[in-house]
Amino acid sequence: MSVTRRIGGGLVLLWPGLAQAQQLGGGGSPNISLLRVLISLLVALACAFGLALFLRARMGQHPAPASLGQWLSRMGTSRRIEVVEARRVSAYADLCLVRNEGEEWLLACGPAGITVLRHGLAPVREDTAVAGGKDAG
Description:
Blueprint: H1 3-14, H2 16-19, H3 34-58, H4 68-74, E1 81-88, E2 94-100, E3 103-110, E4 113-121, H5 126-133
């Protein structure tokens, strides 16, 4: 530690004005209106919501709608294409089970493209899948 720091530290300790504590509530009122706080909160929430929609569209999950009306109309609609299950089989390949209009397709997705392994599969119901796994004896 240098000599000037030691001297400076000692002077700070000797100066009584720096060591006095302030009283609680001693400052003036901040004069910030409640309306200004609420508007700031709404702007921050709108920015966060817009950023979430942008990131969702950027990641390719669901494209962002062009207007608020399109976004609201999408909320209650069902989709014709549904990804039932996706499994990673290697560092570069996935197996995906996709349902479209009552048929299931087994797809292999990799860097070379998408290959249809099986198609026209009937969807498996939950009750038959559980019953088929039980032992008969």
